[in-house]
């Protein structure tokens, strides 16, 4: 025990020791003090104004200003992104500016950009309208030209009919007949409206016009050759130029209203060809002028955005820091009488000298006459959990924290997860060919670490990059596991020497039926390659991997129980050692530890004993004769002893601890039911052993609740010992599935394709094999093995000792603010 106590503590084994401190900061040095603490990033402030709303805090106006500046910076960022300006890392050469000056600059830039955007939108709208007008002039002019040519052909017949017709006939004739002659159209008041409309609306638009005019209209349409920008929606659309011929003022009003409802833009087109040509020239001239103006405006706007982009990162960091400082100051309690701020928070013990040094520097730099008071206090609540990690250990710590953050000073599973997680993954994924592929991917990510860490990655790529060192160890252990299994893309190799087996005859005709003959010492490392393809390959590998899974599971579960002992010893809980650790070790090893011993003895002796039969009849007939299943002398009495110990361990876990806790609690408050009568309410508050306080403590202990909790914990462990051991058989199942899948893809795809003489078939077969290897074996199987290894650590391993009910240490740090952004 003294050896364990004198061992040097590991950095990751337990979280950093924390202390609760109080700061009394003069108002004139508060800003600098919080700023320096933010650069240090080792103090987690407590919110002393949690009952106040954000608008009732001291520095609410400064927070609003920073929020407004953040909004402007986001506006600039969106404008830069829309303009397609590539943001580059610029060396910041300009000197730092004050927050007030920055606020003025941001306001000026915002007004300038808003004005530019407004003017640009107006110019673009005018440009789009003129472009539509040009399209309408082209298409509508052709409509009028076709009608004029048609009128010349039928002029004599139409003139004769019009002279012989009376006034009543002219008024009731159809519009189509009226449109046949221009002279009659002029006399009868036939007009036309031309414009442009979205193609998707043209059918309904024509139908609505027909119904509104009761058929007294002529509708011509022509598609526009290219997509044009709508002046209103500013979106590219396929449009149709239309021309509606009608008669009467009422019809004109209806048609204009329908055009407005369908967002059809109407443009006047003169009937005279000369005027059309003149108007077209004017439109082309104005379009050219607008294009030059728009280009100049875009260049000027891009120039302004580029100048903003040059300092955008610097400004964003500055505003983010200012907002973080004032948010933190709002968590401090403002003492009006003493003109100081009172803050409290958690910090690691090793950081206290650094914090004091930063506070002294803040006092000196702010020219304050009064120093900042640094005071260590006692806290009622549990401290936060803080582990100092690096790039390598951070990913493994995140795997553990995803289950639950460790309780303060609790044994950290991440110390062991660094090795056990990739090892159990490799047991399921053992193939040194696939492991080399994973290793290449991990090395590429690590080689590009400095470049990728500065880029904004997608969710999948960010997760992959964050776990690059996990992937590295998974690959290394997979190569090791593949060498043990002797599988390279499911192909065995004689890497470590010759096989220990040979054929019975020269042509090896009976190798897959009768079997091979052993003629030399066993294969030095891993599985003998001659097992591949033999008639006993599958039974041998099943037996090996299943027993190996049980051994690994029992070892890891025992490690979890040993860590529960280290936790109990660290917290000074002798009850947990006597009534949890000892009976749990006895129960687990009396059953499954004994099974592991039988497996090892069977491997060493080569016995043919049936371990299923041994374990079943250990419960059904403990005193029965083992017969051929006896592996060593004294096995029968040992089994009876172990079974009795397992039965005794269950009540040992269940009953003593709750009753001992009740006895200790009763003895603690025995004879102290009544306290000294206080003379005032203040006396009651000041007496820690007052009757009211003792009664509150006495009511905190609920025996039934403690007993039920212990009963649940005991039943969970007993049942979990069985189910968790069975759960480790997933190592065997996934390892077998991975090996068989690799074999199927190799034999039924690659070798089958290679047996053909056609080069195309070989290439197709190799492509299918490569695709299956990359996406099924290297992606899906990797993810599957990863998740199963994760489950074995979270459930089977960590539930033996890990509470995971703590909370993370989240200090005020400028670095973390930038990461969150």
UniProtKB/TrEMBL annotation:
Write out the transmembrane intervals. 423-446, 467-485, 548-566, 586-603, 636-655, 759-780
Q: Which GO terms describe its molecular function?
A: ATPase binding; proton-transporting ATPase activity, rotational mechanism
The answer on whether this UniProt entry bears the keyword Membrane reads yes
Q: How does it sit in the membrane?
A: Multi-pass membrane protein
Main localization is membrane
Its signal peptide is: none
Which InterPro entries does this chain map to? Answer: V-ATPase_116kDa_su (IPR002490), V-type_ATPase_116kDa_su_euka (IPR026028)
- Please give an example of a GO cellular component term from this record: vacuolar proton-transporting V-type ATPase, V0 domain
Compartments (UniProt record): Membrane
Question: Which keywords fit this entry according to its UniProt record?
Answer: Hydrogen ion transport, Ion transport, Membrane, Transmembrane, Transmembrane helix, Transport
Q: Name one GO biological process term.
A: vacuolar acidification
Q: Which family does it belong to?
A: Belongs to the V-ATPase 116 kDa subunit family.
Could you tell me what this protein does?
Essential component of the vacuolar proton pump (V-ATPase), a multimeric enzyme that catalyzes the translocation of protons across the membranes. Required for assembly and activity of the V-ATPase.
- Cited PANTHER family: V-TYPE PROTON ATPASE SUBUNIT A1 (PTHR11629:SF72), VACUOLAR PROTON ATPASES (PTHR11629)
UniProt-recorded name of the protein: V-type proton ATPase subunit a
| Source organism of the structure | Trapa natans (Water chestnut)
């Amino acid at each position: 025990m003294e050896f364990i106590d004198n061992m040097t503590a590991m950095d990751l084994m337990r979280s950093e020791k924390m202390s609760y401190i109080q700061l009394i900061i003069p108002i004139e040095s508060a800003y600098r003090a919080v700023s320096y603490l933010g650069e240090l990033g080792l103090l987690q402030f407590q919110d002393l104004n949690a009952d106040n709303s954000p608008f009732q805090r001291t520095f609410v106006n400064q927070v609003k200003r920073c929020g407004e500046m953040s909004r402007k910076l986001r506006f600039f960022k969106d404008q830069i992104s829309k303009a397609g300006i590539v943001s580059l890392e610029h060396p910041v050469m300009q000197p730092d500016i004050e927050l007030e000056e920055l606020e003025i600059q941001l306001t000026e830039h915002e007004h300038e950009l808003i004005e530019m955007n407004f003017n640009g939108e107006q110019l673009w709208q005018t440009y789009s309208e003129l472009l539509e007008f040009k399209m309408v002039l082209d298409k509508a002019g052709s409509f009028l030209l076709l009608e004029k040519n048609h009128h010349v052909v039928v002029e004599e017949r139409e003139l004769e009919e019009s002279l012989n017709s009376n006034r009543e006939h002219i008024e009731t004739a159809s519009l189509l007949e009226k449109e046949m002659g221009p002279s009659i159209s002029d006399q009868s008041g036939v007009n036309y409206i031309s414009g442009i409309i979205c193609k998707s609306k043209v059918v309904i638009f024509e139908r609505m016009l027909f119904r509104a005019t009761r058929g007294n209209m002529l509708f011509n349409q022509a598609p526009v050759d290219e997509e044009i920008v709508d002046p209103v929606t500013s979106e590219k659309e396929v449009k149709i130029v239309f021309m509606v011929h009608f008669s009467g003022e009422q019809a004109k009003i209806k048609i204009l209203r329908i055009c407005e409802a369908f967002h059809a833009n109407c443009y006047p087109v003169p009937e005279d060809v000369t005027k059309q040509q003149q108007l077209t020239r004017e439109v082309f001239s104005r379009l050219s002028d607008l294009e030059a103006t728009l280009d100049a405006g875009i260049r000027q706007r891009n120039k302004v955005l580029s100048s903003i982009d040059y300092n955008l990162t610097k400004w964003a960091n500055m505003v983010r820091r200012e907002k973080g400082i004032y948010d933190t100051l709002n968590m401090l309690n403002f003492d009006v009488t003493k003109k100081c701020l009172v803050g409290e928070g958690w910090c690691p013990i090793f950081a206290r000298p650094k914090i004091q040094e930063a506070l002294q520097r803040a006092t000196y730099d702010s020219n304050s006459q009064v120093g900042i008071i640094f005071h260590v206090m006692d806290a009622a609540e549990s401290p936060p959990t803080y582990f100092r990690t690096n790039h390598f250990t951070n990913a493994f710590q995140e795997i553990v924290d995803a289950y639950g953050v460790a309780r303060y000073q609790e044994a950290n599973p991440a110390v062991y997860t660094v090795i056990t997680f990739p090892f159990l993954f490799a047991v399921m994924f053992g193939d040194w060919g696939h492991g080399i592929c994973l290793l290449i991917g991990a090395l590429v990510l690590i080689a590009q670490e400095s470049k990728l860490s500065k880029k904004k990655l997608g969710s999948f790529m960010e997760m992959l990059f964050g776990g690059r060192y996990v992937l590295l160890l998974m690959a290394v252990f997979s190569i090791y596991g593949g060498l043990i299994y002797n599988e390279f893309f499911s192909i065995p190799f004689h890497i470590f020497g010759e096989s220990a087996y040979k054929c019975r005859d020269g042509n090896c005709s009976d190798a897959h039926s009768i079997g091979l003959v052993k003629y030399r010492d066993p294969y030095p490392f891993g599985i003998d390659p001659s097992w591949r393809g033999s008639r006993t390959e599958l039974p041998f590998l099943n037996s090996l991997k299943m027993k190996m899974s049980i051994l690994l599971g029992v070892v890891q579960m025992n490690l979890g129980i040993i860590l529960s002992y280290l936790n109990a010893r660290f917290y000074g809980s002798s009850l947990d050692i006597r009534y949890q650790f000892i009976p749990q070790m006895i129960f687990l090893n009396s059953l499954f530890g004994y099974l592991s011993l039988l497996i090892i003895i069977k491997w060493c002796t080569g016995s043919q004993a049936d371990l299923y039969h041994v374990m079943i009849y250990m419960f059904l007939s403990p005193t029965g004769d083992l017969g051929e299943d006896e592996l060593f002398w004294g096995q029968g009495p040992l089994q009876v002893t172990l079974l009795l110990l397992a039965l005794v361990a269950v009540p040992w876990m269940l009953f003593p601890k709750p009753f001992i806790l009740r006895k200790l609690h009763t003895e603690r408050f025995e004879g102290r039911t009544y306290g000294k009568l206080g003379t005032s309410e203040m006396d009651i508050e000041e007496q820690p052993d007052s009757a009211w306080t003792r009664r509150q403590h006495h009511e905190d202990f609920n025996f039934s609740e403690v007993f039920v909790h212990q009963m649940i914990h005991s039943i969970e462990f007993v049942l979990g010992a069985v189910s968790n051991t069975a759960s480790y058989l997933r190592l065997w199942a996934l390892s077998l599935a991975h090996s068989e899948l690799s074999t199927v893809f190799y034999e039924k795809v690659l070798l089958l394709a290679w047996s053909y003489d056609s080069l195309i078939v070989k290439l197709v077969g190799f492509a299918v094999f490569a695709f299956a290897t990359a996406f099924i074996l290297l992606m899906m199987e990797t993810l599957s093995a990863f998740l199963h290894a994760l489950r074995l650590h979270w459930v089977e391993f960590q539930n033996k000792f890990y509470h995971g009910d703590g909370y993370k240490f989240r200090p005020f740090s400028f670095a973390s603010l930038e990461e969150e952004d």
